[in-house]
From TrEMBL:
GO-annotated biological processes: fatty acid beta-oxidation using acyl-CoA dehydrogenase; fatty-acyl-CoA biosynthetic process
Reaction(s) catalysed by this chain's protein: glutaryl-CoA + oxidized [electron-transfer flavoprotein] + 2 H(+) = (2E)-butenoyl-CoA + reduced [electron-transfer flavoprotein] + CO2
GO MF, any single term: flavin adenine dinucleotide binding
Protein name as catalogued: glutaryl-CoA dehydrogenase (ETF)
Gene3D superfamilies: Acyl-CoA dehydrogenase/oxidase, N-terminal domain, Butyryl-CoA Dehydrogenase, subunit A, domain 2, Butyryl-CoA Dehydrogenase, subunit A, domain 3
Keywords: FAD, Flavoprotein, Oxidoreductase, Transit peptide
Family statement drawn from the similarity comment of this UniProt entry: Belongs to the acyl-CoA dehydrogenase family.
The EC number(s) this enzyme carries: 1.3.8.6
Pathway listed: Amino-acid metabolism; lysine degradation; Amino-acid metabolism; tryptophan metabolism
Origin superkingdom: Bacteria
Needed cofactors: FAD
Domain Acyl-CoA dehydrogenase/oxidase C-terminal: 242-388
Domain Acyl-CoA oxidase/dehydrogenase middle span(s) in chain numbering: 139-229
Organism: Glaciibacter psychrotolerans
Length: 395
């Protein structure tokens, strides 16, 4: 990543778009600590890790020690940071690689949030401090091989057997499952969808990493099978009933995505600026060309608008006023624009843009995964359409 985030390109973006003027000192502190960790610990090896499909587990404890895991939660060893601070951290991690923002999201916004929102006191005291410290890893098992965007079609079941529950079924695209210590598993019961806290060493729980990915290669996603997984009655999340439980956790993760993808966009924009001011063609810098400046200006405008949208949603979230419809607006817009920015950056880099000397193609590949998970473009489009018309077109 020799050309990414040079002083010139970073200065141009930061000077023209003065986000710091809209942030508190605490938020800037979180942002700067995340940027330092991402650039000094993750960035030096990320191209190699992506190529080798390698996830660096040794970073987990470091992320916990820095307070990034479940940072938006309060108590039980969590930092209690604000929504904007959390969003800025997501942006900085995704500026290096979407896989590491995904890790922070799966651990904190999905698994930890589910336990914090809906778990018993025993669940919280047992798992949250260890997960916040990076001493335990969690996963969130909702998506199924045939379900995808339709969790209401869930086929995984939990049936009563005396005082126990027995879980059977399969899940797909479950982040971190093969290294997780605990899984939050959602299953159909005789009283609707319920969540269960499942230690992954429970007999019958099996996670296998999906090995054919051309995207998110430096992170872990798995197929999970549940074969007569026997749990005590206390394993059930007492305060989650129906799909509103997992959906509320998904909204936490979607909020982080709204911020995170702007990090990938910024990385691509910085690379494009650096290239345009260093490469000469036809006896002038590439950046002197009007078409290049048009591309850069349009990229910057969408990055600026996307980040301001994320900030607006963050302020609404801190006031307790953020709605799922607004999150869909943010997720749909920002992922779509980040992909477009990455594509324009690739064009400015020319043939070199497809090489691992630059992070652009890796960001493009990763963003295709982000586009799909936590709600596809189509789903978020129809959520917005429902809000505008009152008709639910996806039913």
């Amino acid at each position: 990543m020799t050309h990414a985030g040079t002083d010139t390109s970073s200065l141009a973006v930061d000077t023209v778009f003065d986000l710091d003027a809209l942030l508190t000192p605490e938020e800037i502190g979180w942002r700067d600590r995340a940027r330092e960790f991402a650039t000094t610990r993750i960035q030096p090896t990320i191209e190699q890790d992506f190529e080798n499909k390698h996830f660096r587990r040794e970073f987990i404890a470091e992320l916990g020690a820095a307070g990034f895991l479940g940072m938006h939660l309060s108590g039980y060893g969590c930092a209690g940071a604000g929504a904007v601070a959390y969003g800025l951290v997501c942006l900085e991690f995704e500026a290096v690689d979407s896989g590491w923002r995904t890790f922070v999201s799966v651990q904190g916004s999905l698994a930890m949030s589910a336990i914090a929102k809906f778990g018993s006191e025993e669940h919280k005291t047992t798992w949250l401090p260890k997960m916040a410290a990076g001493d335990a890893v969690g996963c969130f098992a909702l998506t199924e091989p045939t379900g995808g965007s339709d969790p209401a079609a869930m086929e995984t079941t939990a049936t009563r057997d005396g005082h126990d529950w027995v879980l059977n079924g399969s899940k797909r695209w479950i982040g971190l499952a093969s290294i997780a210590d605990v899984a939050v598993v959602w299953a159909q019961t005789d009283e609707g969808v319920r969540g269960f806290v499942v230690p992954t060493n429970t007999p019958g729980f099996r996670a296998v990493e999906i090995d054919t990915k051309l995207s998110m290669r430096a992170s872990i996603q798995c197929d999970v099978t549940l074969s007569d997984v026997r749990l005590p009655a206390t394993a059930m999340l007492p305060d989650a009933r129906g799909l509103s439980g997992p959906f509320s956790c998904l909204n936490e993760a979607r909020y982080g995505i709204v911020w995170g993808v702007m990090g990938a966009a910024r990385s691509c924009l910085e690379v494009a600026i650096a290239r345009s001011t260093s490469r000469r063609v036809f006896d002038k810098h590439l950046g002197e060309m009007q078409l290049t400046q048009l591309k850069l200006a349009n990229m910057f405008l969408e990055y600026e608008k996307g980040t301001l949208l994320a900030l607006h949603l963050g302020r609404l979230k801190e006031q307790g006023q953020l709605t799922p419809n607004q999150i869909s607006v943010g997720k749909l817009n920002n992922v779509r624009e980040a992909i477009a920015i990455a594509g324009e950056a690739r064009s400015i880099l020319g043939g070199d843009g497809i090489t691992s000397e630059f992070p652009v193609m890796r960001h493009m590949a990763n963003l295709e995964s982000v586009r799909t998970y936590e709600g596809t473009d189509e789903v978020h489009t129809l959520v917005i359409g429902r809000a505008l018309t009152g008709f639910a077109a996806f039913k």
